[in-house]
Amino acid sequence: MALDLNEDKDLNEKVSDFFSNNKKNIILYTIIFIAFYFASTLYISQDEKKYYLASDLYQKVQLANEINDAEGLTNELKENYSKTSYASRASIFLGNLYFKNKNFSMAKESYEWAADNSIEPSISSLANYQLGILFFSQKDFDNAIDAAIKINDNGFIGLKNNLLGDLYNSLGKTEDAIKHFQVAYDFYNNKNDLAKVVKIKIDSINQN
What we know:
CATH architecture of the largest domain: Alpha Horseshoe
Order of helices and strands: HHHHHHHHHH
Low-confidence stretches: 1-5, 37-44
Distance between the termini: 99 Å
Largest sheet: none
Number of helices: 10
Mean pLDDT: 85
Shape: globular
Strand content: under 5%
Number of domains: 2
CATH topology of the largest domain: Serine Threonine Protein Phosphatase 5, Tetratricopeptide repeat
Oligomer: single chain
């Protein structure tokens, strides 16, 4: 028992000596740790605030009654919150409004901005898909194919290959069309009714 007490006493003395000898370093490291903690907390807080403000602006874009209002809000997102996903989403939404109003040059510009600046592959893929549809509607098949090829999110495999199938079929390249339609069909089969639509396209080509 006495031995245990002596060991405890020795341990306490060693700990006391360690703190005495390293007092300045311990205080310095403590200050650095506290400063780092508060800086990290402040950074996270500001980041969360930025995403909240961006989300609020994006909701306003979706609810805008006039295209000019949507345009102004989207530009604000691009200027102040370009590193959030909401800026690219708003640009695609605005592009769809332009497309609906047959302002194809502005629609193209909006889709391209989202494709080039999106931080999420899914949003970038959606922007390139919309670009492909726009070029397809203008019978600009080369640019449409280029846009479709840039779609790289796995969730868009079906849409990408269905679009490429339509494009190659329009160019009379039926073998390439069937190849892409088959990929789209395999993706949608037993998952989505679009499989039936793609199958009709494949059968139609094979019957000709």
